[in-house]
Amino acid sequence: MTAPHGPLALDVDEARSRLAGLTVVDVRTPGEYATGHLPDALNIPLDRIESALPALRRLPGEQLLVVCASGARSQNACRVLAEHGIRAMTLTGGTQGWAQRGHELHRPTATSRGAWSMERQVRFTAGTVVLAGLGLGLLHPAWQLLSAGIAGGLVFSALTDSCGMAVLLSKLPHNRPRPADLEATLTTLARRGQAPVT
Fold first, then answer.
1. How sure is the predictor about 112, in pLDDT bands with cuts at 50, 70 and 90?
2. What is the DSSP secondary-structure string of 95-145?
3. What confidence score (pLDDT) does residue 98 get?
4. Which of 71, 89, 148, 195 has CA 20 to 30 A from 3's CA?
5. The whole model's pTM is what?
6. DSSP assignment letter at 69
7. What pLDDT, in 10s, does the model give residues 101-110?
8. SS3 helix, strand, coil % of the chain, rounded to 5?
9. Helix H or strand E encompassing 8
10. What Å distances lie between residue 130 and 110, 146, 152, CA to CA?
């Protein structure tokens, strides 16, 4: 378990050996979560994590593992939680690392549609906007600024390890949890917080 400059981190093997005693919160979008998640992981998208603070605060210490696709969003979630006095760990490599080690990802039994990861959504959107800027640039050179703006945004995203486009895309309806789903997740968390520590 390491925490050189950020939240405590578990590698995949440590997380797997401790999984039965952990509450796992997946902070990806509902669409991403549906493509495969750690066993018994609960889905609370990163931009909704603050709504879960009361339930997360009641969990026993050293029990909360936050995961995402690769580890970047879960680190951000751990920082938010730490600001509110909640200790959490992040999974190094995220669900991608978990799957690469050959561990099972659970999927809902019935999914209405295939979902794309946020990274894939960002790549598609950025590529589409760049192509549109280049195409429209044939009509008027000023449109090429659109492509230049996306290129600058991608460089900024890499330098800061943040992604404004992902934040915007996460607001789209297919990336939002249904209120009933989020409420059920919060109820499950509340029950776990009331359970006696073993």
1. very low
2. HHHHHHTT---B--S--SS----HHHHHHHHHHHHHHHHHHHHTT-GGGHH
3. 94
4. 195
5. 0.69
6. S
7. 999 898 866 5
8. 55, 10, 35
9. strand 8-10
10. 35, 7, 11
